[in-house]
């Protein structure tokens, strides 16, 4: 096997041919290295994209779950507020209704007192109503009235009362507009105070006539 010629004895062709082979091997290795780096970068990028997509999906799902929990809590809170508000409205309506009833009774009381002062003859229907409560007349039958009302009764219905066996008596303790009926077996309190308490009790109130 012949030894290679020294560089200074080689021809230009020989030097070019050997250099060309060396350069081609280096280029091949560089190309292989470059392709491997690109593929690796592509793999990394694909992994990043996949991880990003998974993270987005997980984050979206977690966000939906949190949103559902928050919405449920908000709805529960709103429902509690609505129930509390409805309860307060109901209580307020009860208070208002009760206060309106008190006001109505006060107005009725004031109007009745004024009416009796202006039209004292209003006592006459009261007397007739009290008499009707008695099942039968028993002697002696006494009709107690305020002195001024007694005068009115004698003037307007005195004859009728006398024919029916009634005797009109005066009671200064009775307020005008009221009466008291007494027989041996019955007594009817037709005083203003008693009748007013009956009206108030029927309305669920305990209001005194003198209050």
* Topology as a string of helices (H) and strands (E): HHEHEEEH
Q: How many distinct folded domains?
A: 2
Quickly give the CATH architecture of the largest domain: 2-Layer Sandwich
Mean pLDDT figure: 67
Helix count, per DSSP? Answer: 4
Describe the sheet with the most strands. 4 strands, mixed
User: How many angstroms separate the termini?
Assistant: 146 Å
Given the helix and strand composition, which structural class is it? alpha+beta
Low-confidence stretches: 18-22
- Report the CATH superfamily of the largest domain: ATP synthase, E subunit, C-terminal
Number of strands: 4
CATH topology of the largest domain: hypothetical protein PF0899 fold
- Characterize the quaternary organization of these chains: single chain
Overall spatial form: rod-shaped
Q: What amount of the residues lies in strands? A: 5-15%
Q: What spatial order of strands do you see in the largest sheet?
A: 2-1-3-4
The gyration radius over C-alpha positions equals 57 Å
Proportion of residues in helical segments:
55-70%
Under CATH at level 1, the class of the largest domain stands as: Alpha Beta
Q: What does this molecule look like?
A:
The chain has 211 residues and is an alpha+beta fold. It has 2 domains: 13-87; 119-202, ATP synthase, E subunit, C-terminal (hypothetical protein PF0899 fold), CATH 3.30.2320.30. The protein has helices at residues 12-118, 123-132, 147-163, 192-202; strands at residues 141-145, 166-170, 179-182, 187-190. The protein has a 4-stranded mixed sheet. Mean pLDDT is 67; it is low at 18-22.
